[in-house]
Amino acid sequence: MSKNSQITILKVAETAGVSKQTVSRVINNHPDVADITRKHVQKVIDELGYHPSAVARSLTKQRTHTIAVVTAGLNLVGPSNVLNGITLKAEELGYALLIKNLAGFRIDDYQGLVRFLNEMRVEGVAWACPDIQHYRQESIEKLSTLPTPVVFQGSSPIENALFVTVDNYAGGCRATQHLIDQGFRNIAHISGPLAFADAEERKSGWADTLLKAGLPPSSLNSAEGDWSAASGATAVVELMNTYPEMDAIFVANDQMAIGAMQIIKERGLQIPGDIAMIGYDNIAESAFSSPPLTTIAQDFELMGAKTIELLVDVINAQRDGNDLSALQPIRLPADLIVRKSSLRRVEVA
Amino acid sequence: MSKNSQITILKVAETAGVSKQTVSRVINNHPDVADITRKHVQKVIDELGYHPSAVARSLTKQRTHTIAVVTAGLNLVGPSNVLNGITLKAEELGYALLIKNLAGFRIDDYQGLVRFLNEMRVEGVAWACPDIQHYRQESIEKLSTLPTPVVFQGSSPIENALFVTVDNYAGGCRATQHLIDQGFRNIAHISGPLAFADAEERKSGWADTLLKAGLPPSSLNSAEGDWSAASGATAVVELMNTYPEMDAIFVANDQMAIGAMQIIKERGLQIPGDIAMIGYDNIAESAFSSPPLTTIAQDFELMGAKTIELLVDVINAQRDGNDLSALQPIRLPADLIVRKSSLRRVEVA
DNA sequence: CTGAAAGCGCTAACAC
DNA sequence: GTGTTAGCGCTTTCAG
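Output (structure tokens, whole complex):
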């Protein structure tokens, strides 16, 4: 076990017989140090196991090189993969990362959160929570008092805020149009919890696309799940009752789709023969469901990386007094991945 | 946009017409302040939007109230759920959490990591990476130079180190024994990457249980995957060739099991009729595969929470000079969850 | 109850 | 090249 108090720069200076300043120059690779001095000091540093204090350094330099990420729902595929991208990019760009995970997607204590971010003197905030309706706008307002930039992540662009977004609405349209193109006409939808903006927008894409094709949606051909496979199973049972003519389902995520497919098969129905399916997210398992699941893919990790890139750009621009307006919001694509679950029904001769 | 430099305690003191100490007493809820003074100062604080600097405070108090978590593979179910538990418990106990995510499970730069942890003056480290063979021991050694406690997570107990563990070996035994109990005799295994201690130990449990039952394992009845559904599919194809008499498979995680089941069904075989299956992890989807997958459950979130609890206990004990030996390593159970995929074959009359 | 002085570990800005 | 002097923003001690 190592000893109690840390070794300070003064201790190093004394045992090396130089001033603190010289030690400082050595640890910062300052050029104006004689080679012999540098080597000697370095030796003392190594022997003593000295590590400069980032705390003290932050205080003098007025810079923490730390950013905070606010997440929620790390058990979900999206948030955890986004976080993966965030951590790796932050590391790459030389920022320490403070993580704040919201239990249950709710912020019961905005004031506490804002206080924390302020007191820690983070240089920026990556807001990587799923957008919950009613909360998003509030978040933006509450966080606007921060002296530090915040990059939001989410479905739709946000007025006067920096953001990285994937177009969930477009994804919903694309998924639905794909089913229409494949010849299906009675297309149901299993949404995520509609409090989630992601879920709401995917559903809007579905509804609008149906309308445009002259296939009006109704309350009878959609059901709401909670992203879990179990809820997908429950929802599909509901739809089979309310909308028996259903020949295809656009499900708002792959996990619910997998849950729904299980029920459909248990009832002896064929996929896509009787009911076609398309999911969302392209989780690894969806390529191995039976049948393999058509889906919409988003690159969560890239989303995380882009969030940090933008944030760091803003931090730098702000410090250098550059123009922020040059920084464009970032939009990532939602790609259609066609597998067997949505293939066109065989035409009857 | 807020202004540049933060408001300091001095600024507050001046505009309130008191000394810094008085302000300090107010923000720390020190009792020895006149009520009128306190209210006045608090008002100034609110008006100015003052937030005390955790950096400065850390410097004087020699305490950061920060712990670091080292993770890897956040895209995997286990690590992301463990992290979820870690973040929530750290929050609950009043610690800020610095996250360091290793790309590709490897530590290319131990020195850099140790330097980071030292310089940030974290008060403890939660080592929440999957244990990779050969690396674990190295990690323990390298991190032993830290002046701060480290709690490791992993399969097997670690000599002279604090740890939280689930018994993967016992889980492997349990899964295999279940298949034997159900009447299967030709039990294959699809392992995770054997570089992972988790994978290795589950496999050992399988092998030892077979041996004990007089059903010796061989190189022909096991195959190695990489935890992904795709690799499970590949592995099962291999097994069907090398071990055609196979009537059951213990798969080291649910995702590979799902990939394998897909192939088995494609070949027109029944589960569990022709081949029974048991997975590991109890991911949400496994209850909704066809058929529902028998599996071994571990509570990842609890594991994360326990890791932080133990770590904080150690931090406190160490600071208070208490005896550390009273702190027990923590072991979490691996529970068998029986579903249809492993049900006893119907006896032929 | 309140304030003045000293110091946490480091770096910036000047001397020499 | 190297050392000295002042802080960075806060808390701790000790006076009053």
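Residues 300-320 of chain B form the longest helix (21 residues).
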